[in-house]
Each structure stands twice: as structure tokens, then as C-alpha cells.
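re: ur question from earlier - yeah i can do the single chain one, its not a big deal. heres the input i used so u can compare w yours
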Amino acid sequence: MDIKELYALYQQHPVITTDSRDCPEDSIFIALKGDSFDGNQFAAQALEKGCAVAIVSDEQVYNDYKGDKQMILVPDTLQTYKDMAREHRRRFDIPVIAITGTNGKTTTKELIRAVIGERYDEMATEGNFNNDVGVPKTLFRLSVMHEVAIIEMGASHPGDIKTLVETAEPTCGLITNVGKAHLQGFGSLEGVIRTKGELYDYLAKDSDSVIFVNADNEHLMKILPKNVKAKCYTRDESKTGERVYGQIIACDPFLRLKWRQTDGEWHEVATHLIGSYNLDNVLAAVTVGLHFGITPKQICHALENYVPSNNRSQLTETEHNHLIVDAYNANPTSMAAALDNFSLMEVSPKMAILGEMRELGESSAEEHRRVVERLATCPFDEVWLVGQEFKDIDCPYRKFDDVEQVKAAIAANRPEGRYILIKGSNGTRLFQLPELL
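and the output i got, formated as C-alpha cells:
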């Protein structure tokens, strides 16, 4: 079957599952294969549970199947999944905004979603479905009610963004920033820039494409294509041209800011975001909103009513402490920003619980040493370091092998009355700590 025939099959059975534990009646099961799983082995079971069709890549499984429901053999089930999702996306002549970057992807996506939602019926990536399985899953949620799609795209290896944009076919895009993350896969910061820049490369193919760009980011400005429309935002009022300007009013602890268009009036916004670094994310959402005709009043309303979740820049008030929870992910760039912001907050006493940063490859030891060196300049009353990467670094801070040791320390002597920054890679599982603090 070619892709159009497979998509016609989807139109007859418009529910796709890739999980053999979740097999809705009359759905299509796509047997994805990974390093630690093989959906082909569960294809017959999926058909027995209610799926009308199973798409497999294992010829033996296909030949052995004796049931009366349809099983289809393809060379690559993941590629088939992406091709079918692209075919579905092409049924909708709507703007598709692609968002990638080292830090701030999800927060920026949610801010843009809030702003766009003031006027349009939008559809956006849910959770962390931003990889080559998650993006097709998101695209299949598109329906006739949607007027704008906002698609988050993650990457850990060269070529990842190229694959995702070729699936989603965005009409405009945004790279939040580039920094040191997933260096084990990218090899260097230059590798990160090239990979994130694959979004620009795709958009440059169409002169009607729009790129939203932080004019303060020299890496992004350097690779910005000349033949696409660029909508810029900046903190620097000395920069000229049509753009959005923003300034921080205060972080006490929530970010308060003001923004304006070129030669326009200032608009003040009190957000629920923690961290001065979120100004760029807010300005990105403002710039996107203005492009889509959202009024300044609507933009301010959306920004002031957005409340972050999922352990991203959250301030949590407990019975015992004030927690600044940023425990979803961590890399050298985001860790430095979090420490700098916490240092500037006029609160006391301050405590930091920092988990190790994953997937840094050969740079890991050096980057963790830099975190410890930075801590020496921070006005924190107490610091706990969690993970093996901190173990051999000579420093005066308390160290823990893993989150279980931290939980035991809290149970023995819980910190009280403190402002506590919790920051680390998701794999360190520091997200388990807030309920104990």
C-alpha cells in the first residue's frame, strides 16, 4: 500500500494507537519498534483486543498471522506513522507554528497557546510529545475545528528537527535559544545550533514563511535566512526596525514586565512565572500574538492568566517552605539561568537542591564543576547536590547519591521556613521532593 491508500484506511478507522494495552474498537495499531520494545510482537494481540488493522514491519509476524482482521506489512512502521501524520496535516490549510530550542520550549509553547487562544481555536502539543513519535501523535489530533496548530519539537541528535519539520510542514517557526544540552548526541554547541537551525532551513524554502526571532541572540541572528519574514523581539531599545521591546519591572518573586511595539505605548504585565529568563519567552508569545492579530489587551489578559505547571518555573507554597520548582529538565544553560535568577530574588533564607545534568557526554564533568564554581558566587544559605556527577567535586556542599537519600534526609530533619530552588534533570527525580518539603 502507498501512503494515500494507508491514509484512506485511516479515514475509515480514524483512531490510531501505538500501545497494545490501549486498543479501542475499530482502531489502527501501528507496531513501533525501539531499543527496548518491539510492537510487532503484540500486533496479533492488538487485533484480538479490538483493533481493525495492524501495521507491522516484521515479515515473520506478518506471515504467521492467521486471524481474520487486516494486517499490513511495511518496511518501516515509524516512517509510515510519520507519513500518515503528514498526509493528515495536509488536509488542513491553517498556520502551523513550530517551536524548538534548548530551553523554554514548553513554557513558550504554552504562552503562545494562551495568547493565540484569545481569538482562535488552537491545537498544541500536550505534555512532552515533541519527538518523532509525539509529533505525529499531535498532528493526528488536528480536526476541522482548529484554526492554528502549535507544535513543539525536541532534538537530541543532528537531523532530528529536519525529520520533524518534514512531518509537520510548519508555516512559521521559533527557536527559543541554543545552549549546551544533549551534548552527548550533538557533540558540541555548534552541533546544537546546526540542528535547531534545521527549522530555519525548512522555512527558508518558502518566502511566505515567518520566523519569530530573539534579536538579542547572536547565534540565531547569524543563521537567520534572508529570504523569509522575520518578526523580532528584544530587550535592547537601541535596536531599530519593526520589533517588540520588553523590560523587566521586577521579580518578586513573580516576573513583572512591560512591553511595547516600535513607537507604541508600554503595556505592563504581572505574570505567574518565576525567573527573569522568562522575559524572552513572554516576548516571543507577544510577537506571535501580534502577528496573528491578537490585540495588546488580549495578549496581556492571556499572559496574566497563564499559570505554569509540570514542574516548570513554579512557585509552590507549602505549610513549611516556599518552593521554586524547576525539576523537569536541566542543562548548563538553564542551570546557570536558574541560579542567577534565584540569586537576584530578594528573599531569605535561600536553599538550593540541585540534581545532576544528564546527557552531556564528555563535557559532563567539566560542566558540573562549573555549576559548583558558580555556586560559590551565589548568596545561598545552604546547598544540596544530588547525583554521581557531583560526587568527586571538592566543595563545601552536602552531597547525596540519589533522590532517595535526599528523601531520607528530609524525613530526618526537614528544612523549614525557607525559599528552596529545586532544579535538576528529570532523571534525578527531584520532582518527588515538593510533597515532602
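The first strand starts at residue 16 and ends at 17. not sure if urs matches, ping me
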